Amino acid sequence: MAKTYFPEITKVIPFEGKASKNPLAFKYYNKDQKVGNKTMAEHLRFSVAYWHTMKGDGSDMFGSASFVREWLQASDPLDRARETMDAAFEFFQKLGVDYYCFHDRDIAPAGATFAQSCKNLQVIVDYAKQLQKETGVKLLWGTANLFGDPIFTSGASTNPDAHIFALAAAQVKNALDATLALGGENYVFWGGREGYESLLNTDMKHEQEQLARFFHMAVDYAKKIGFKGQFLIEPKPCEPSKHQYDTDSATTLAFLRQYDLIDYFKLNVEANHATLAGHTFEHELTVASIAGKLGSVDANRGDLLLGWDTDQFPTDLYATTLAMLVILNQNGLGSGGLNFDAHPRRSSIDPVDLFHAHIGGMDAFARGLLIAQQIIEDKALSGFIAERYASYTSGIGAKIMAGQTNFVELEKYVLDNGLPRMKSGRLEMLENLINNYIH
Ligand code: XUL
Ligand code: CO
User: Fold this and answer.
1) Mean pLDDT, range 216-238, rounded to an integer
2) Which residue ranges make up each domain of the chain?
3) CA–CA distance, 281 with 300 (Å, rounded to integer)
4) How many angstroms separate the Cα of 140 from the Cα of each of 13, 67, 100, 108?
5) How far is the CA of 152 from the centre of ligand 2 (A)?
6) Does 252 score more than 80 pLDDT?
7) Which fold has domain 34-378?
8) 190 Cβ inside 6 Å of ligand 1
9) Which has the closest alpha carbon to 284: 303, 299, 305?
10) Geometric angle at alpha carbon 49, from 347 and 316, rounded to 5°
């Protein structure tokens, strides 16, 4: 690498432990430390989001860029893309993460024609391949940006115009080729424009059928090119669309089942999308997990007082603990990981703030992992929950679960045994218990 973009970071961010006062050191994330039967790195599989970390400029709906990044200054778009890629790999290595994620248009600039855009992507993919080989950093997932270009304003695959559907398909075809070329372990579909604004001009059934056709074609194309990575859908209820079709985990799973797609997809659950959908992060993770469909996580958080996707770095230990409980209970994310789909705030203008932000997120999840592992080892919650449902393990409860009884027999059961007695849910006791583990 010709020059350094993060000169203030002279070595890989070290693990220094809880007592360290060094803000540029991990206090909890100790890559090779075993937790249960895996190392922290194997459990957490952290990934950097190219769009925020490398391309984010601090702008918001009311103000222009507040960050000035040295890697974004070259006047030629391809030079700029290469310099950004250099800075990205310097960042991944100095932070000590093994994975990154991108949209096609994050890594390579759009050209004046579609053919030019594809060529640009090819050039940068070749460059990324070389840097991946040199550094050992891997691609967690690739995706296509089907929301930024104004042509997708009324949808990509759900657009009323079939020509635009074709453009979206062509773009995903190239993004899949890129992901395959870079050994991507997953491929994500996030449908920011796959939704509608008003039913006055929308045929919802038609649009949902279009979306299903699109996904089937993606499955077919992946088979054709030998892409073995996991397909993931990332639910979000709104923003930028008013109603997005992949609203939340439950809606997305129902859609996948309805259109015979369930075998080919898992979900990429994002914390801030969960809260926008009026759910907790752990609810969305659990709905996906109990269906055997929790594939990966976009790790971030929203702001309780703001009703939009603020994509802040995760710092809340309560949230990371509950998330890691779900992940540990399903024995990990498989080919998925924890991708920081998050950006420093508008006032955090320095490149070093990117380090502080990621270090905080990684430590918050490492602590969540340690706490969740202890809770599981102690059977602190599972024991209580098992006891709460114990009446289903024998007698009439076991018959209910085995499908061996009916309303008539249950009526007789109540008549013979009298009215049931209530039991406490002990929520306050359990909340206290969790707080005692978070220390
Ligand atoms: C948008 C969002 C996306 C997806 C990938 O809210 O989360 O960046 O993660 O397209
Ligand atoms: Co996301």
Assistant:
1) 99
2) 34-378, 383-438
3) 10
4) 21, 26, 6, 18
5) 18
6) yes
7) TIM Barrel (3.20.20)
8) yes
9) 299
10) 65
Distance between CA 128 and CA 88 in Å, rounded? 10
pLDDT over 90 percentage in the chain: 99
271 in contact with ligand 1, CB cutoff 6 A: no
Mutate to test the pocket of ligand 1, among 179, 232, 234 (most ligand atoms within 8 A of CB): 234
Q: Is the CB of 268 under 6 A from ligand 1?
A: no
Could you report the per-residue pLDDT of 80-100, keeping only the tens digit for each?
Answer: 999 999 999 999 999 999 999
pLDDT band at 167 (very low <50, low <70, confident <90, very high): very high
Any ligand 1 atom below 6 A from CB of 298? yes
pLDDT band at 2 (very low <50, low <70, confident <90, very high): low
The yes-or-no verdict on residue 1 having pLDDT over 60 is no
Nearest residue (by CA) to ligand 1, atom 3, is 190
How far apart CA 186 and CA 365 sit, in angstroms, is: 21
Q: What is the mean pLDDT of residues 196-220?
A: 98
Do you know the residue count of the chain? 439
Q: How far is the CA of 336 from the centre of ligand 2 (A)?
A: 13
Query: Which residue type occupies 54?
Result: M
The single residue of 43, 103, 273, 283 carrying the catalytic annotation is 103
